């Protein structure tokens, strides 16, 4: 059975997307790509909202860039090897292999996907993740704290829930970021 993992780079004050719609909170050099590439080896499926999917489309062809460093090629290959599900009511077609569109987030379909998967599933994007969190589907949380405070935007966690989490692991990045791995330690409560 695969775990559903919610992971994003977030600002130090807890925002996944800033007030201007950006989420470029961490310098993504070789160390960051190598670390995340290693984390993604366990992932068989990515769940995205439309905007995050369109951002990640870069990886569909990144390996073809002239003089692409090996860490970019390796990360691209890891991304390409996984299935992708895009939740969107507006996207008409996909621009990557191994990708399908779903018009709504179906909790039962995600439960079935988890039960049938021998690899992990990553949910990326605070709005789509909020649906999984509220349904009690998320097994692990992997926020990556950046050394930036942005003062507002869309938070990593939805505002109307309370979670008690247990820290399982951490990893410091030379860029000043820190990857954290949490699991729920108690059932979720609504605020």
Automatic annotation (TrEMBL):
Coiled coil: none annotated. It comes from Agreia bicolorata. PANTHER family: 2,5-DIAMINO-6-RIBOSYLAMINO-4(3H)-PYRIMIDINONE 5'-PHOSPHATE REDUCTASE, DIHYDROFOLATE REDUCTASE FAMILY PROTEIN (AFU_ORTHOLOGUE AFUA_8G06820). SUPFAM superfamilies: Dihydrofolate reductase-like. Pfam families: RibD_C. Residues 3-159 form the Bacterial bifunctional deaminase-reductase C-terminal domain. InterPro entries: DHFR-like_dom_sf, RibDG_C, Riboflavin_Biosynth_HTPR. Gene3D superfamilies: Dihydrofolate Reductase, subunit A. This is Deaminase/reductase. It comes from the Bacteria.
